[in-house]
Specification:
Blueprint lengths: L5 H11 L4 E3 L6 E5 L3 H11 L8 E3 L6 H4 L5 H10 L4 E6 L6 H4 L4 E5 L4 H9 L4 E2 L14 H8 L5 E2 L12 E6 L2 E6 L5 H8 L3 E2 L22 E4 L2 H7 L5 E5 L9 E3 L6 H16 L5 E4 L7 H13 L5
Parallel strand pairs: 1-7, 3-5, 4-8, 9-10, 11-14, 12-13, 12-14
Antiparallel strand pairs: 1-2, 2-6, 3-6, 4-5, 8-9
The protein binds threonylcarbamoyladenylate (TXA) and magnesium ion.
Length: 318
């Protein structure tokens, strides 16, 4: 095996010392700490200013590790992991006692995920514990998909960012739990519902309920950027807001507007997902009053992208 890089060794030493490190994954950057050490987990909540009722995902190097942390593994979970791990899929499974209650906010399930990023998998394999990691942004803000995004907001608060370049998928993992062995999708994400159904058959989609959310990521306004966002047909929205300085967020069409972001010049949902959170962050730096956004095609990854745009546009806080 090739020698471990100095960047991974640095991350490893900090994590073994109970410190936090921002880690790259294929979805978004995570704010990682030792999942088995309550003091390290408490630091995550503190740095992120995240309420302790919102549980963390635990990252493992491969499926073999799941049995150490999960008390029950439904056949559907094993099948999904076999097909899609490493990858943008989080499985909610009954937890074993070794997982501290702080990680799961007292719930009896733990979210487990094996991320598809070479650096982070090497790091995970080199550690004697799994990593609890929420997205590496202050609570309630857009997730980071580049090291600079993490540095902008958390650079002063954490000792190290493991630089793995821009995230290849760009939106968070799909969260799947099981009720009476039937798969339930609680958060749409980087793995499409269609892909999941092709392996385990019909799923239940519970991603939109906003009252008393089982998964607090369901809070509608969770992805709020700095400006008001409205969704619709761009031409109609431009007529509705004639006096505002508008930023345009479009799928493929270029309106040659001073403030705009085309999510995918080549017209693919993969490219749109990669660019979405960078676009929302770019708008925050622009002198605009409002973001006018059109939905992307509502299929595959597009459903998760539209979900995030809708949440960015939501203003209610349940
Ligand atoms: O792609 C991702 O999932 C990224 C990367 C870093 O892995 N992580 C991420 O974490 O998005 P976070 O904390 O920003 O979002 C995780 C969501 C939260 O909404 C949390 O409420 C939910 O997962 N969650 C975690 N454990 C849960 C559990 N046991 N039951 C219900 N929801 C859970
Ligand atoms: Mg998050």
């Amino acid at each position: 095996m090739a020698e471990i890089g100095t960047d991974i060794l640095k991350a490893k030493a900090l994590l073994e010392n109970g410190e936090l490190v921002a880690i790259p994954t294929e979805t978004v950057y995570g704010l990682a700490g030792n999942a088995l050490q309550p003091e390290a987990v408490a630091k995550i909540f503190k740095v992120k200013e995240r309420p302790e009722f919102d549980p963390l995902i635990v990252h493992v190097p491969n499926f073999d590790h799941v049995q150490k942390y999960a008390a029950e593994i439904p056949a559907g979970a094993a099948l999904l992991a076999k097909h899609f791990w490493p990858g943008p899929l989080t499985l909610l499974l009954k937890k074993k006692d070794i997982i501290p209650d702080l990680v799961t906010s007292g719930l009896d399930t733990v979210g487990l995920r094996c991320p598809d990023h070479a650096l982070t998998r090497e790091l995970l394999s080199s550690l004697g514990f799994p990593l609890a990691a929420p997205s590496a942004n202050p609570f309630g803000y857009v997730s980071p998909t580049r090291p600079a995004h993490v540095n902008d907001q958390l650079g002063q608060k954490i000792p190290y960012i493991l630089d793995g370049g821009p995230c290849g998928v760009g939106i968070e993992s799909t969260i799947v739990g099981f009720e009476k062995n039937v798969p339930v999708v609680y958060r749409m994400g980087g793995l499409s519902v269609e892909a999941i159904e092709s392996v385990v058959g019909k799923i239940i989609l519970q991603a939109y309920s906003s009252s008393n959310p089982k998964t607090p990521g369901q809070l509608k306004s969770h992805y709020a950027p700095g400006h008001k966002v409205v969704i619709g047909k761009i031409e109609e929205l431009l007529r509705r807001y004639p006096t505002q300085t508008c930023g345009l967020l479009t799928f493929q069409k270029n309106y040659h507007f001073p403030y705009q972001y085309v999510l995918s010049p080549s017209g693919t949902l993969e490219e749109a997902a990669q660019n979405l959170f960078t676009a929302l962050r770019e708008f925050d730096k622009m002198p605009i009053d409002i973001i006018l956004s059109e939905p992307v095609p509502d299929q595959g990854l597009g459903r998760a992208i539209n979900d995030r745009i809708r949440r960015a546009a939501a203003t209610d806080t349940p």
